[in-house]
Amino acid sequence: MRSNTSQCAYAKAEEASKEKTLHVKTEEDEVPAFVDDDEDLCKSLEKGRRLGLKNHEEEIITKEPGGLHRDGRMSGSGSRHSTMFLVVRPCGSSSAGIHRLHPTPSSHRSRNVVIRCSLSSVQEKKEKAELDSELQPSLAFPPIRAAKRVVLVRHGQSTWNAEGRIQGSSNFSVLTKKGESQAETSRQMLIDDHFDTCFASPLARSKKTAEIIWGSRQDPIITDFDLREIDLYSFQGLLKHEGKAKFGSAYRQWQVDAENFIIDGHYPVRELWERARSCWTKILAHDSRSVLVVAHNAVNQALVATAIGLGSEYFRTLLQSNCGVSVLDFIPRSDDGSPHICLNRLNQTPGSPIAGGKSGGRETSKRIVLVCNGSTQGNTEDGFPLGGDQPLNMLGVIQSQKSAELLLDLRVSSIISSPNKACVGTASVISQVQEAADCLGADCVPRYVEMKQMGELDIKSVMTNNDISNFPPFQPGWLNRVDDGLRTTLWNQSGKAWLSLLDEISDESKPGEVIVAVGHPAINIALMGHCLNLSKEWLGSFHLDAGSVSVLDFPDGAKGKGVIRCINYTAHLGRWSIPITRSTEDGEEF
Questions:
Q1: Which of 303, 319, 348 corresponds to the end of one domain?
Q2: How confident is the model at residue 481 (pLDDT cuts 50, 70, 90)?
Q3: What are the percentages of helix, strand and coil residues in the chain, rounded to 5?
């Protein structure tokens, strides 16, 4: 009687019986997938097809100490060291991608089978349409009954990270000592936060990070194969200089046009975006209010982007550092429609978010740091200044001092603020600390930091011309619920401010230039939207708190595409930082 694997595989083979016989040359630099039993193997192969294995052939083979078997017979009797491989290759091609499934215990021995898959041109066009990137304010997720917060964490530094080797979805690297330390720091950072469940990639570097962060919590970690890192096929395992030498133009395209990058007949980034959407369906369907997800750089980027409706052209735009934390809020709609989704923070790292001068592996040419003014005397109960021109209160002064201390790692050339009293107060504190920084040693060399005021950064006129008594509470996504006219005014005014800020960093003779812009959270949200080339419909997709810091990098200068290093960073505020998770009592929103 055939096993589940054999039944599934032979059914697929019978459907494609007219395909050519597969000829395979095995290599030792295999790329692993994860299969725990016959049924999971069948599911794994089905997932492979959904991810774009069009016009490809597959073969399962087993390798034992006595040699490689691919003739359809059972694997050797009693061997503990037999290894299963999934071979994937374009039909008619002589090259193949070799995927190690895992050392197969004797109880899991399976028949060697050949599976071939070929899609019609109509099916190919349909898949291409599904993979095409579409910019939309929100993805049509299934409705949810209660507010849900999802916390994404990237794994700690791995051995291949340290070597500069392309990992992809391979599973040969493990956490370095530094990576374990980063994971432990993240554990401490999240130790007081409540999570109902944890999803994790099955790859070792991510799974180990999840185990460290999850700590002594009793519930088991849920591993999901779809949370693995981006599939990079023949690139995997190569050092970066080897990728350049071996693949030339293809490697160049991977660097500068990743969305359209193609290798071994696949579009890895487009496939990843499709997979991320599948992940969200499963995560949102889980009966939990607070979810921890531990995965990888690229897949976390895709999860963030697909949640807020950004296409695959935004790959490498929303950075994910080792053990960086990103938070997404899913807020149910009263009409049972797709939930409101808000990016509460992006890439809150165990260390300083402004240390180092690289963004996604590239040197940063210019940088704009967005600082939200500290708390004011006229704040609402939710800690948010909706209108007026109030000075900083004592908490606001402390927040400003903390932000100034964080920015000591940067040499700021100028500080531009709204003329609002709280913004000017915050900017003054940052300026004083920057100017005094070089005088802390024996050799005091005072430095002048230019301060400017920009009227377009002032939100007072926008707010005072509207009835703020009807404003929604200051919660994630609050800008979704304000008057459309106000959003239009805010968007247009911030657009002028954005162009002025870009002009401030346009001098190419000043590489590494850093400016700080101090404004109201609402205006800073709009500035980030302009950085990403979005529209006013995205204003409710981001959230900023008083005293927070967000960092925008420009690897190609002011005329190039902006890269967001972090959003709503508040860890520098110490005891006044905003917690990652919040109470989720029945009937209570985040």
A1: 348
A2: confident
A3: 35, 20, 45
Q: Is residue 156 a known part of a binding site?
A: yes
Q: Is 530 a catalytic residue?
A: no
Answer whether residue 453 is part of any domain: yes
For residue 122, the model assigns a pLDDT of 42
Q: Is 240 annotated as a binding residue?
A: yes
* 131 within some domain: no
Report the distance separating Cα 522 and Cα 540, nearest Å.
10
Q: Are strands 325-331 and 148-154 parallel, antiparallel or unpaired?
A: antiparallel
Q: Using CA atoms in the order 245, 158, 410, 550, what is the torsion angle rounded to 10 degrees?
A: 100
172 shares its domain with 302: yes
CB-side neighbour CA atoms (13 Å) of 155: 32
**Inter-residue contact 108 to 38 (CB < 8 Å):** yes
Is position 590 within any domain?
Answer: no
- 79 known ligand binder: no
Question: What pLDDT is attached to residue 150?
Answer: 98
- Tell me, yes or no, whether 206 and 75 share the same domain: no
Rounded to two decimals, the pTM is 0.77
Neighbouring residues of 538: CB distance < 8 A, sequence distance ≥ 6 = 137, 308, 309, 529, 532
Q: Verify that 213 and 298 share a domain, yes or no.
A: yes
Contact 296, 209 (CB under 8 A): no
Establish whether 55 is an annotated binding residue: no
- Decide if 23 is catalytic: no
Q: What is the CATH number of the domain that holds 484?
A: 3.40.50.1240
Q: Which of 298, 324, 348 finishes a domain?
A: 348
* Active-site choice (56, 99, 108, 155): 155
Whether 183 and 227 map to the same domain: the answer is yes
Q: Is 324 annotated as a binding residue?
A: no
Tell me the C-alpha distance between 400 and 248, whole Å.
48
Secondary structure of residue 516 in the 3-state scheme = strand
Do 342 and 329 meet the contact criterion of CB atoms below 8 Å apart? yes
158 in a known ligand binding site: yes
Residues 242 and 276 in one domain: yes
Residue 383 backbone class (left: φ over 0; alpha: ψ -120 to 50; beta: rest): left
The answer on 101 and 68 residing in a single domain is: yes
Residues 367 and 275 in one domain: no
pLDDT given at position 379:
64
For residue 125, the SS3 value is helix
Asked whether residue 237 carries a pLDDT value surpassing 70, the answer given is yes
pLDDT at site 409: 87
Q: What are phi and psi of 421, to 5 degrees?
A: -60, -40
The three-class DSSP label of residue 199 is: strand
DSSP for 38-50, written as a single string: HHHHHHHHHHHHH
C-alpha dihedral sign at 74, 76, 80, 85: negative
* Active-site residue (options: 229, 271, 313, 456): 229
62-66, 117-121, 139-143 — which is least confidently predicted? 117-121
Domain count, the chain: 3
- Residue-wise pLDDT tens digits, 370-422: 999 999 887 654 445 555 688 999 999 999 999 999 999 899 999 999 999 99
Containing structural domain, residue 256: 148-348
Q: Looking at the structure, do residues 495 and 417 belong to the same domain, yes or no? A: yes
| Cα–Cα distance, 85 to 214 (Å, whole number) | 32
Q: Residue 190 corresponds to which amino acid?
A: L
Name the phi and psi angles at 97, rounded to 5.
-90, 130
Considering the domain boundaries, does residue 581 fall inside one?
A: no
